[in-house]
C-alpha cells in the first residue's frame, strides 16, 4: 500500500530490479505536478506549454526518483555503504535515501562549486561529506578508485538502477496526456542520465504499445559546459572531447558526461535537438518562470531558454505541445536568485513613501 503512494513504485511492474518489493526504500517521491505555463506560452506563440516540476520531490530534485530505486537495490544486496560524486543534488538525494534505509553514505563534491542548500542537505542526512579541491569530473575520478578498493555501492548515474527510477517521469507525462504524448520534451543536460532515462521510459512504453510514437527529446546545455553540443558539431555525436566546464548553473557544470552515448541515441531516435544557451539567457528564463509562480534552479531554466531558440529556429510549431522538465527547486540555490535580482536596500522612510504611492492605486486598475 505504501508503494502505491510513490510515483516511482506505483509503476513497479515496469521496474524489474528487486527480488522483493519489501526492500523498497521510499520517501513518497514522484507524482510531481505538471503546470500549464499560460503566459510564457502566449509570449512564445505556442498553444500548449507545460512544466513537469521534478523539483517538487522530497529532497527537491529529480534525483529522488533514481535514488529510491538504486538505494533499494543497495539495501537488498546488503551493502553497508553507498557513495557518489555530485554537483549537489545527487548527494542530497542519496544521503536522504541512505538514511531512510539505515545505510552510511559518502559524498564527494567539488569545493566551492555547489549551491549551499544542497551541501547542507547531505550534512543534514548524515552523509560523510567531503569537499575536494577539484571539479565534478575530478571527484568522479577519485570515487572510481575508492569503489574499486572498498565494498562501497556506487550511486552515480552509471548505476543502471538509477535510470530505472528516473524513467518514471516519462510514464507520468504519458499518463497525464491520456497515453498520447506531447510533441516535445526539453531537458537540461549535465552528466546526461536524465535524458537517457526519459528516452528509455518512452522507448519501453512504445514497445509495450502504451503509446504509438516517441516525443522529440531535446537536450539543452549551458554554453560553458557543452561537451555534447560540441560532440554533435565536431563528429556528429560519434565521439566526445572533455571540456573544462564553467557555468553558474552549478548542477550542470560537467565537462565529461558519463552517459553521452545513451543521450546521443535518444536524440537520434526521437528526432530531438542538442543546443546550448548563454548565462544571460538562463538567468532571464529563470526569472520568467518565476513570474508564472514557478520557481526552479538555474540548471532547470536552461529548458525554457532552449525552447525559445528551438522556436526561433522553426523546430517547434505553434500547434505543438511542449513539456519542459524542471529538475530542481528554487530554494536549492537562493544565492543565484538574489544575485540576479540584487535586492534594493531602502530606508524605512523610503519604504513609507513607496506605500504612500501605492495608496493611490485603484483596485481594478
Ligand atoms: N538539473 C539539475 C538540477 C541537476 O542537479 C542535474 C544533475 C541536471 C539537471 C543534469 O542532469 O546529469 O542527468 O544530465 N546533477 C548531478 C548531481 C550531476 O550530481 O546532482 P543529468
Topology:
Blueprint: E1 34-36, H1 38-44, E2 48-53, H2 63-76, E3 81-85, H3 89-101, E4 104-110, H4 116-124, E5 128-132, H5 136-149, E6 152-154, H6 160-166, H7 168-176, E7 184-188, H8 193-207, E8 216-222, H9 227-235, H10 260-270, E9 274-277, H11 279-290, H12 298-312, E10 321-326, H13 334-341, H14 348-359
Parallel strand pairs: 2-10, 3-4, 3-6, 4-5, 7-8, 7-10, 8-9
Antiparallel strand pairs: 1-2
Helix pairs in contact: 2-3, 2-6, 3-4, 6-8, 7-8, 8-10, 11-12
Describe the structure.
The mean pLDDT is 96. The strands form two sheets. The chain has a six-stranded mixed beta sheet with strand order 1-2-10-7-8-9, sandwiched between helices. 42% of the residues lie in helices and 14% in strands. The protein folds into two domains: 2-60 and 164-340, Rossmann fold, CATH 3.40.50.1100; 63-161, Rossmann fold, CATH 3.40.50. It has 365 residues and is an alpha/beta fold. Helix 2 packs parallel to helix 3, helix 3 runs parallel beside helix 4 (116-124) and helix 11 crosses helix 12. The chain contains 14 helices and ten strands. The chain binds ligand F0G. Ligand F0G binds at residues 61, 63, 86-90, 157, 188-194, 251-252, 297, 299-300, 327-328.
